[in-house]
Amino acid sequence: MDEEKRLSIIEHLEELRSRLIISIVAILVTTTLAYFFSDAILYVLRAPAGDIKLQAFSPMDGFLIRFRVALYGGLFLAAPIWIFQVMRYLEPGLMPNERRFLIPGTVAMVALFVLGNTFGYLMLHNMMNVLFSMFGSELNYLPSADQYISFVVYFLVSTGVAFEVPLILLILIKFGIVSPQFLRKQRKVAWFIIFVFAELITPVADPIVAPTVVMMPMVLLFELALFAARFVVPKPASVTPNAATGSLIEQKTSSAPGD
Predict the structure, then answer these.
(1) End-to-end CA distance of the chain
(2) Does an H or E element contain 202, and which?
(3) 111 contacts 167 by C-beta, under 8 angstroms
(4) Which one of 90, 104, 158, 168 is at 20 to 30 Å from 136 when CA atoms are compared?
């Protein structure tokens, strides 16, 4: 039994390794492709800040910043592949009739990731206006390309991952890790956690309005996940009346004297 358990763990690790290799190779290929378009990607990332000129302060910044921009573009372009690998890794835990949702689930995860990035990108313009207005007339802002790109990429990745929460919750419910009843009971706690997360990824002076704007779609997605949970919650095993009666008769027969 221990040998079988050990082999099962090794098989899972081998499966995880193969999925990671495929994902990493895909990201390397798309990152290399994105590097040749790093100027265009950098322009798109800079656009929410308006007409500013990003400053570089190190001889290596030219390469490092372009590489970071290309890496983000590679992660974005390779999202269908690495998300599909995640779903394939979870496939053995699904029932045969549930595996038909593998492709739709992958499409949904990619769509939510893109939707989260789009929402975050639209938020950046107003966020930058608020941040720049805080410098006033006594401070002169010299936008560091390294710090600016790090901030924008962090915010976009955070909103993209945050929009994956509904599918993550459905997966946890499907595998019985959490229950819809527990999530409904802890709804206020979940909303508070979402608000705290929104506060962390919106570093603006306003502590209420901006985080609330980020929080609203996340709460909506959380509630949609609770609604959809009724269709994926594991059904308890039921025993048919005939099977139960037959089992009872068999027990009585086996315990009869003289057998």
Answers:
(1) 34
(2) none
(3) no
(4) 158
Alpha helix segments (H runs only) across the chain: 2-35, 38-46, 61-77, 79-90, 102-133, 145-162, 165-174, 180-185, 187-201, 209-228, 241-254
Q: What pLDDT digit, counting tens, does each position of 24-50 carry?
A: 999 999 999 999 998 898 888 888 888
Q: Are 88 and 182 in contact (CB under 8 A)?
A: no
Contact 68, 149 (CB under 8 A): yes
Residues 6+ away with beta carbon under 8 Å from 25: none
- The CA dihedral of 223, 228, 234, 236, to the nearest 10 degrees, is 90
Tokens of 31: 């990152």
Contact of 69 with 38, CB cutoff 8 Å: yes
**CB hemisphere CA count around 115 (13 angstroms):** 15
Q: What is the CA radius of gyration of the chain?
A: 25
- Tell me, what's the pLDDT at 207? 64
Structure-token pair, residue 252: 């009585």
Q: Cα dist. 227→11, 56, 155, 236 in Å?
A: 35, 49, 28, 19
Residue 67, Cβ density class (10 Å: 0-12 exposed, 13-18 middle, ≥19 buried): middle
For 122, residues 6+ apart whose C-beta sits below 8 A from its C-beta are none
pLDDT, residue 252, reads 46
